Task: inverse folding
């Protein structure tokens, strides 16, 4: 890439600063220096025309007011930094951006070999920082890479349905024509799931090419991102976009009895769901399918007021469910649970969970529901294994102990009351009269099942999108 993409950049030197992933960027002849965490490096770009050894490189990284490798800074404290570097440390060579037509951006040094790029900014995700990150970091970054405004499209979400509609009307249509597409998605897990559902709603042709998703993490729980190790630096997932590999996102399909509805607008309104040939309601997921305590706390905390507290909203809602403020005992959910497994010969088998009351029922394809909440410690990133975590009604103190163990490297699976097993799917037949206790959670989306209804989840065999991750 020619120097014209970044005129007048200052020259700097990268020096190791004590720790294994700490550096100093020294500029102005050593008069100025600033800290650099390795996790915040975006890329090193060789200058020149690609036909000769570069004389120098361009270093792009995200700078923060406090180089803290233990946390992710607020977007307001971040800025994009650019320097020319003559001799980068050898150990940073893995951040070199080379010409590769199969990468997320295509061949970044040859505009004719770039893929079609869309940028989706989910304005209201999590603590509403996505738009600010685009303005402070991403817009300048794309320009620095030589990706001009006419070479990509930027979209700001306008409604809860916008991403799913874009996926079906734009992404799926072009994928079915065999067009390679990349999507920079500034969102939480919900944005990924919306894309998956938008595409699954339409048939795929034999020409279908899976879109690549570069997830820049701005949700609340961020289970998919945390389980894929995307949310561990101020780059918010950009390192995986530049240097990762595209891997299929495993999914499951959830079918519910007729009359099930999606709850929207903080539970004040409902929306019809997609249906299958038999008239049942259908939705796809990539993270969790849950009932009981997990689904209810996610639903109860899905308000503007609760979201101000970030991921803390979940523990706040859980505490109210375990120790209700009116002094009543915690609810015991009623229903029949059927578990599906594959025998060693591949035959599908079923068994019924030996109780009718429950406190926790959660099937998951990921390891972490939050950064340190390791709900399924045997799960690896995008391994496609569906696992069930469940336990019966227990005293509030014991439930809190179990969750404390889950936050301690997933030790809750050692608790005598916790069931943890690999499954092919499960079915729930609900025996609750109050609609509050018939809410299920599919990747953060809340569905209310009609009285006497059921839901069933199974692993999905079809593949629709890839996620950029670093292995």
Result:
């Amino acid at each position: 890439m020619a120097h014209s993409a970044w005129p007048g950049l200052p020259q700097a030197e990268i020096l190791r600063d004590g720790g294994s992933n700490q550096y100093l960027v020294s500029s102005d002849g050593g008069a100025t220096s600033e800290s650099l965490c390795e996790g915040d490096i975006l890329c090193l770009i060789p200058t020149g025309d690609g036909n000769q050894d570069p004389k120098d490189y361009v270093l792009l990284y995200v700078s923060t007011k406090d180089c803290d490798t233990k946390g992710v800074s607020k977007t307001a404290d971040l800025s994009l930094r650019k320097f020319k570097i003559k001799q980068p440390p050898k150990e940073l060579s893995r951040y070199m951006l080379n010409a590769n037509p199969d990468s997320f951006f295509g061949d970044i040094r040859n505009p004719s070999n770039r893929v079609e790029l869309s940028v989706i900014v989910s304005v209201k995700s999590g603590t509403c920082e996505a738009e600010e990150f685009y303005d402070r970091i991403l817009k300048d970054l794309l320009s620095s890479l030589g990706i001009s405004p006419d070479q990509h499209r930027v979209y700001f979400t306008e409604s809860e349905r916008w991403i799913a509609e874009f996926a079906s009307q734009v992404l799926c249509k072009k994928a079915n024509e065999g067009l390679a597409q990349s999507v920079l998605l500034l969102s939480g897990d919900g944005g990924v799931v919306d894309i998956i559902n938008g595409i699954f709603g339409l048939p795929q042709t034999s020409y279908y090419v899976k879109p690549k998703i570069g997830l820049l993490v701005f949700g609340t729980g961020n289970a998919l991102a945390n389980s894929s190790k995307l949310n561990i630096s101020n780059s918010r997932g950009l390192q995986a976009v530049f240097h990762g590999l595209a891997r299929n996102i495993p999914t499951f399909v959830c079918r519910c009895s007729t009359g099930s509805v999606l709850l929207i607008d903080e539970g004040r309104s409902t929306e019809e769901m997609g249906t299958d040939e038999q008239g049942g309601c259908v939705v796809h997921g990539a993270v969790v399918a849950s009932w009981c305590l997990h689904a209810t706390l996610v639903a109860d905390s899905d308000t503007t007021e609760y979201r101000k507290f970030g991921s803390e909203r979940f523990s706040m809602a859980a505490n109210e469910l375990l120790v209700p403020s009116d002094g009543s005992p915690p609810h015991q959910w009623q229903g029949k649970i059927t578990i599906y497994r594959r025998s060693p010969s591949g035959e599908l088998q079923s068994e019924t969970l030996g109780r009718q009351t429950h406190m926790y029922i959660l099937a998951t394809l990921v390891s972490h529901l939050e950064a340190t909440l390791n709900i399924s410690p045997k799960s690896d990133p995008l391994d496609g294994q569906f696992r069930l975590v469940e336990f019966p009604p227990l005293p509030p103190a014991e439930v809190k102990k179990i969750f404390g163990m889950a936050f301690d490297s997933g030790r809750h699976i050692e608790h005598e009351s916790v069931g943890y097993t690999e499954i092919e799917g499960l079915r729930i037949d609900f025996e609750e009269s109050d609609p509050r206790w018939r809410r299920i959670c599919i990747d953060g989306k809340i569905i209310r099942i009609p009285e006497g209804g059921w839901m069933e989840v199974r692993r999905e065999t079809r593949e629709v999108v890839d996620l950029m991750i670093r292995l």
Remarks:
- Residues 130-144 form the longest helix (15 residues).
- The chain has a mean pLDDT of 90.
